[in-house]
Amino acid sequence: MGARRDAQDCRRAREFETFVAGAAGRLLHAAALLTTEPPGRACPAAERLLTVALSRTYAAWDGLRGADPYDHARQELATHFARTAWRHRRPRGGPLSRLTPRERLVLVLRLYEGIAEEQTAAGLGLPVERVRTLCTRAVSTVRSR
User: pLDDT at residue 145 above 90?
Assistant: First the structure.
């Protein structure tokens, strides 16, 4: 019984490592956009955000059978950022530094990740019209720069 459990744990760890190898770069870039850390430099806040999202994804790994683990990790990233947005109010100089944390979150989910307005609204617990307004305002602010 112990050998079977060890084999399952090993398989689970290999599957997760494969997932992280393929998805961590894109998720880290999304986290860096959210935290407004300039690309190409060390991004400790984005790395912390990614670590939390990946650890929560790993904890739920067995329950994700048949589901897309990237969607789960992205949702964890967005949820954790939304909970800790007060830490990310001070701009760090990235391309989205002039936006509020909520505007950055909506913009990253809608335009960088390509999530539909309805899904973004449901994931953030906002009305679709609010997501549309936030996205439009964020795009206008970025373009005016």
Answer: no
